[in-house]
Amino acid sequence: MYQEASNTNLLMLLHTAVYPFIAALIISFVAGKLSRTLSPLGYLGGFVVGLSLIHSGLSFPPNQAIDYYLVTVFIGAVILLSLTSIKTPVVTNGVLFLLSGLSFFFLLNPVLKHAGFIISVSWAVVSALIVVFYYLVSPKTQNQRHTYEARSLSHYSLPIGLMIVAGSAAPVISIGGSLLIGQLLGAYGAALFAYIAIGYFTKNTPNNGFTPALLILGGLIAQSHVLADIPLGIMLMLSASLFVTPLILLFSNKISHSIIGQIMVSGVISAYSLWLIWPESSLY
User: Fold this and answer.
1) pTM score of the predicted model
2) What is the C-alpha to C-alpha distance for residues 238 and 240, in angstroms, rounded to an integer?
C-alpha cells in the first residue's frame, strides 16, 4: 500500500513539475534561438505538456471547460504576436481586450452557461478588463532604469511575480476546491520558471512575454471559483495579488523589492485563505 502511494506521489510530481519544466526548458531555448519574440512559446508548450499529463481526458475540439486551455494557449500566442507587430496603443489595447475576453468566455462559459449568456459575457468582460489594466500598468515598470543589482533581471520581474502568485494559489485551490486546478498551477509555475531561467542565461526574453502567462493564470484563478467553488473573496484576493509586483516597481527600481513584496503579500493571502477553507475533517 505504501509503495503504491509512493509511486502515485512520484508520478504526480513528474506530471506537475518535472515534465512541464523540461519541456518548457527545451522549447524556450529552441524558440528563443529562432526569434526573441517566440521564446514565450516555451512556457506555453510546457504548460500544454503538463495539461495533457494531468488532465488525462484532454481533447480537441474541447468537450470540457479544462480542454479550452488549448484555445487559451493559442489565443495567448496570437496576442503575443499582435503586441509585437501592432504599434498603435489604442489598437493594441483593443486587440488585447477582445482576445482576452474571448479566452475567458471559452474557459468559463461551459460552467456558467446554465446561468445565461449575459453572465458568461459579463465574467469575460470583467476578466479581460483586468488583463488590459495589468498590461497598461506593466510597461511603465519595464521601461524604468534599474540599478546594477536589477539589470540582469529587469525583464523577468513580471513573470517572476506571476510565478509566485501561482505557487501561493496552488495549495489553496488544491485543498479547498480542485486538485486538478492546483496541479495545473504547479505545471504553470514550473513551465514559467524554466522560461525565466532560459531567458536569464540567453537574454531572449521579450518585454511583453508575460501577457499569455497572465491569460492562463487569470483563467485558472477564475475557474477556481466558478468550477471548483473556491469562495469569491479568496478568488478576488488572489486576483488582487497579481498587481503587487507592478505596483511595487512603480515606486522602487529594485527588483529585489518586488520579489520580496510579492512573496510576503502572496504568502499572507495564501495562509489566510488556507485558514478560511481548511476542511474540518482530516485530509487523509
Assistant:
1) 0.87
2) 5
